[in-house]
Design a protein that fits this description.
Structural class: alpha/beta
Number of strands: 11
Shape: globular
Strand order of the largest sheet: 1-3-2-11-10-9-4-8-7-5-6
Strand content: 15-25%
Largest sheet: 11 strands, mixed
Radius of gyration: 17 Å
């Protein structure tokens, strides 16, 4: 990923194609190019893809609402990833288990696991079965599931930007930020040394807008939501 957001129509070879049941793929969301995740569209309406599942341990920090976090998880499922959610609000994530469906024996799909905020043994990730761990533990999360192996990506869901999360946020491979109030935008500017115009832009984003931030990257984009995702997640929104 190298903290970049790519145009989805470019053949960048950044990740292989993953095998997943076509019915699950159709039901959840569009897949990305060569295993990437379609995150949204650019200013010209072009689809933008992040290769969030890759052959290197990867950290993504998401500063925003539950809607965006669940959409990212759904799209990881759509390209064949295992998804483990560690959270203090498990009922908020049950929609993922419902979207994954059941096995032929009626048991829930193992593709999604909802866990408590405590260390657990994780599935072993591989090129054919990458792993997305969602850490939904508040604004100052403990690093319970650091990505230590290739094909594991850990997403840290921060409901707001907190000074004590600055080191973790600054060490992320990619940061996705929704609209921030003025005080938090000022904190973001200090953490990432943003110029005033970028700081102001963070305070004026619409509910369906996100800024992708990384090394040498500042990319505003608009979330793209399918009809099926609207049924699962409801309308696009900034908060929870």
């Amino acid at each position: 990923m190298s903290s970049r957001v790519h145009d989805a129509n470019q053949d960048l070879g950044v990740a292989p194609e993953f095998i997943v049941d076509p019915e699950l793929l159709d039901a959840i969301s569009p897949s990305g190019d060569r295993g990437g995740i379609v995150l949204g569209s650019g200013l010209q309406g072009e689809p933008l893809t992040i290769s969030a599942l890759r052959s290197a341990p990867t950290r993504i920090v998401l500063v925003g609402g539950l809607y965006l976090a669940r959409q990212v998880a759904l799209r990881a499922m759509a390209v064949g990833a295992w998804v483990v959610v560690a959270t203090g609000r498990p009922t908020a994530w049950h929609v993922l288990s419902q979207a994954a469906g059941t096995q032929p024996n009626g048991q829930p799909s193992p593709l999604v696991q909802i866990r408590r905020l405590s260390p657990v043994e994780l599935p072993r990730p591989s090129e054919d079965a990458p792993l997305l761990v969602v850490h939904d533990g508040g604004p100052t999360p403990q690093d319970l599931f650091p990505p230590r192996s290739p094909w594991q990506t850990t997403v840290y869901v921060l409901p707001y930007l907190h000074p004590q999360a600055g080191a973790m946020a600054n060490a992320a491979d990619l940061v996705l930020m929704q609209r921030l109030p003025a005080g938090q935008a000022e904190l973001a500017a200090r953490i990432w040394r943003l110029p005033p115009q970028m700081m102001r832009q963070l305070t004026t984003l619409k509910d369906d807008q996100v800024v992708a931030l990384g090394r040498n990257l500042w990319r505003p984009l608009r979330l793209v939501t399918t009809a099926r995702e609207k049924q699962i997640l409801g309308p696009v929104r900034r908060g929870d």
